[in-house]
Amino acid sequence: MKKILPLTQSLRGTIEIPGDKSISHRSIILSSLGDSPVEVTNFLAGADCLSTVACMRALGAKIERADDKILITGNGLHGLHEPENILDAGNSGTTLRLLMGLLAPQKFLATFTGDDSLRRRPMARVIKPLTQMGASIVGRNVNRNLPITIMPVERLRGITYQMPVASAQVKSAILLAGLYAQDATTIIEPAPSRDHTEKMLAAFGARLERSDNAITIFPADKLTAPASISVPGDISSAAYWLVLATILDGSDVTIKNVGVNETRTGIIDVLKSMGATIELVNERTSGGERSADLKVMASRLRGVEFGGDMIPRLIDEIPALAVAAAFAEGTTIIHDVKELRVKETDRLAAIVEEFNKISPATFEATNDSLIIHGGHEKISADCKTRADHRMAMSLSIFGAAAQGVTIDDADCVRISYPNFFDSLNVA
Ligand code: S3P
Q1: Does residue 426 register a pLDDT over 70?
Q2: Ligand 1: residues whose CB is within 6 Å?
């Protein structure tokens, strides 16, 4: 249990955020497939990425850790070995889905499990395309939930796959499997999802071609690892400060070193369309990934309406954005968000039930949309995080900007932002 008091001051100065979760996972996985050492800096040592580290170690990669630096020495594209035990992906959908794609083409057997949340999340969306490629995968019950076993196979075939939902995890699983297939694999997305896997695969020398929403990967003989990977800060973690600084009168902060890959910057675009003042300074590119410092000033917000292709560009930031919308003038309508129902918890239900405790009669959801009536009275409340890190952090900034909040489980922030509360206390 944790009590968050209302903030009495504005946010000022600079804020450092942890490394990007998506890029940290991918840096471990791809570096394990090279055959020369890679030093990863600003690695996110959150519980999800540590699940990936543990799984890759169990598959034979040599991974040494010192603070936020990681040294990985792979055994080549064909150097993974059968794990001695069940692989535990913990709470991490990215670990599980990407590694299912990596292990589907291998000549050994592997079984995955995960925590209570991950065991309930849909995996048929990954099993289906991998099975079309020739993989042999069994899951529990008709929904093919965890535990999941991947059987040894000889060689996968390339496919063309039209994805029914925009999902970077599913796309990445197919791309990783495609590295080992006998011919090219093409994935067509309904809308562009984050492209960190494509960018990093290209930096490792894999051959990919992109046109509109289609991406083709060609089979590889080897990957050539760069000597180092510098992970930018996570815009999904920056989102809490972008929102808090925008809604707290008198705030003026700079969030340092934030990844601003355009498949991830929907939160900036939407906040700006609501009236926020956010400026990108000191822009640079490393390993194909753009980053910048974000200068944010308090601003008056108005409600907006959006959906469609914007959604994959800010899917993890919707709880934080809902907090901003509660402080805006007018109504915000967010369409096409049913994917939120299959995240770490059903985030649409969680937002409606928990956020309304802080701002009554503000949040409503349909099956596929979220409606936020801004400007209602805010009160002090006791809320449940449902063991969801993004709910915990969004509730915390909501309470901090309103009349305070008590959350039942603060520990779950370790998934993506272990020192979140230290930064909130300093704020
Ligand atoms: C992620 C992709 C997204 C996102 C998740 C991380 C990734 O999930 O919500 O937090 O690293 O590829 P989906 O692929 O399910 O949309």
Answers
A1: no
A2: 22, 94, 167-169, 172, 193-194, 315-316
